[in-house]
Design goal:
It is found in: Cell membrane. One of its GO terms (molecular function) is symporter activity. InterPro entries: AA_transpt_TM. A hairpin with a 2-residue loop joins strand 3 and strand 4. Helix 5 crosses helix 6, helix 5 packs across helix 13 and helix 8 packs across helix 15. By secondary structure, this protein is mainly alpha-helical. The protein folds into 2 domains: about 30 residues, no CATH class; about 425 residues, Up-down Bundle (Amino acid/polyamine transporter I), CATH 1.20.1740. The protein has a two-stranded antiparallel ribbon. Strands 3-4 form a two-stranded antiparallel ribbon. The chain has 15 helices and 4 strands.
């Protein structure tokens, strides 16, 4: 950890009025509302557009129960995570600046290493998924205009590789934003965009229902022998669980978001309020997207309401929605990459504390005021990360199955297992007590869901790989 003197030296050029917390870190200015913006940006993502498809696989009963159950579990465990920000006491204890630090303080070094591997793999996977989804939305704008000019039966297929490359170049510039503290405005814009495209999807679905053109729905979803075989039904249901789990897989960034909050009121109290605001808002949108999307399309619901072309007209509104998706994902990309950047940059600074390449900031000033600075480690390391993520996205541009796999990998360990185990350790809950048994039951249930979702998504990715070639995928 950097000392106060090191930080003061680093920021002395033009930042004499910079204030610091008691551990030498820059003073935090985050509020409940800025945290809520970060959380909403990280939760409402491309996964919301697959909820109609997920509901179609599970049916009215299974879809609604799954959405509400995951929402309740995510809210409960995210509040457990908020209480572990300071150790050993949730209000007066030592701050843990990252998820790994929280786990190390409460569960030890081995668990911390396992958490780090899962967290950063999950965050990197999210970034790849967002690159894929953003490019599909860009292509959807192109396709929408093509269908409008040539008719809905026209062959309008385009490669999304150029769009992925363009997005990667833009993210290289945005990745020079130093940390989450500086992302509040971008997160607020991204959160507004997420509400925008979700509302458009809901509105178009509602218009379809009102017009009497809604699809066929059933209590149990797609029907065996009519829509799918028994095996397909099982695999699709597993993948749908993964998709829904993905929509609540945001715990990997919660600790870093909490680390932006001011110390007053206590961070855990403020974070719990932000969790409540965010999850209540998000769940309302999720239910509307799932319910109205399923009612509009029925058992034939597309994998993505806006890019799967369940809606062709009004084409300009579909275009606007997809532009909103792209803007949102640009911001969400940065929220998910910041913990990854923080991890390896902190490690490098501790390993080579005297390196100019790693530590020196080069300020860019207007007059006497510094408006921006760049750092050679930040410039090269983050550029390499974005380039690798873009190449991997171009190699495997699959939507629903990839979402399900990400959800399966990240949901149980990061959203449920570590928060539950840390809470048990922090509160010293006795083995075999009623609360211990309930917590372990939640743990076991979510593990089973994750295993089922992983199996379904791997099967789906295998099917997609057999019909497409890396770097040559067209949508």
């Amino acid at each position: 950890m950097r000392g106060t003197e090191d930080v003061n030296n680093k920021f002395s050029d033009g930042d004499e009025d910079q204030q610091f917390d008691d551990d030498g870190k820059p003073k935090r200015t985050g509020t409940i509302w800025s945290a809520s913006a970060h959380i909403i940006t990280s939760i409402i993502g491309s996964g919301v557009l697959s909820l109609a498809w997920g509901t179609a696989q599970l049916g009215w009963i299974g879809g609604l129960v799954t959405l509400i159950t995951f929402s309740c579990i995510a809210f409960y465990t995210s509040n457990l995570l908020a209480d572990c920000y300071r150790s050993p006491d949730p209000v007066t204890g030592k701050r843990n600046h990252s998820y790994m630090e929280e786990v190390r303080s409460n569960l030890g070094r081995i668990n911390s290493i396992a958490c780090g591997i899962l967290q950063y793999a999950n965050l990197s996977g999210m970034v790849i998924g967002y690159t894929i989804t953003a490019s599909i939305s860009m292509v959807a704008v192109h396709k929408s205009n093509c269908f409008h000019r040539k008719g809905h039966s026209a062959s309008c297929k385009f490669s999304n590789n150029p769009y992925m490359i363009g997005l990667g170049v833009f993210e290289i510039f945005l990745s020079q934003i130093p940390n989450l503290h500086n992302l509040t405005i971008l997160s607020a814009i991204a959160a507004v965009m997420s509400f925008g495209y979700s509302s458009i999807g809901i509105g178009l679905a509602l218009a379809t229902i009102i017009s009497g053109k809604g699809g066929k729905t059933t209590l149990t979803g797609v029907e065996v022998g009519i829509d799918v075989t028994v095996a397909d039904k099982v695999w699709r249901a597993c993948r749908a669980l993964g998709d829904i789990a993905f929509t609540y897989s945001f715990s990997a960034v919660l600790v870093e978001i909490q680390d932006t909050l001011k110390s007053e009121p206590p961070e855990n109290q403020a974070m719990k309020k932000a969790n409540g605001i965010s999850l209540f808002t998000v769940t309302a949108f999720y239910l509307m997207c799932g319910i109205l999307g399923y009612a509009a399309f029925g058992n034939d619901a597309p994998g993505n309401m806006l890019t799967g072309f369940g809606f062709y007209e009004p084409f300009w509104l579909v275009d606007v929605a997809n532009i909103f998706i792209v803007v949102h994902l640009v911001g969400a990309y940065q929220v998910f990459t910041q913990p990854v950047y923080l991890f390896y940059e902190t490690w490098a600074r501790e390993k080579w504390p005297n390196s100019t390449f790693i530590n020196k900031e080069y300020p860019i000033k207007i007059g006497n005021k510094r408006v921006l600075s760049f750092n050679l480690l930040r410039l090269t390391g983050r550029t390499i990360f974005v380039v690798l993520a873009t190449i991997l996205a171009m190699a495997m541009p699959f939507f629903n199955d990839f979402l399900a796999l990400l959800g399966a990998i990240g949901f149980w360990p990061l959203t449920v297992y570590f928060p539950v185990q840390m809470h048990i350790a922090q509160r010293k809950i006795k083995r075999t007590s009623l609360k211990w048994c309930i917590l372990q039951l939640i743990n076991f249930f979510c593990l089973l869901v994750s295993l089922a979702a992983a199996a379904g998504s791997i099967q789906g990715v295998g099917e997609t790989l057999s019909t497409s070639k890396p770097f040559q995928y067209k949508v």
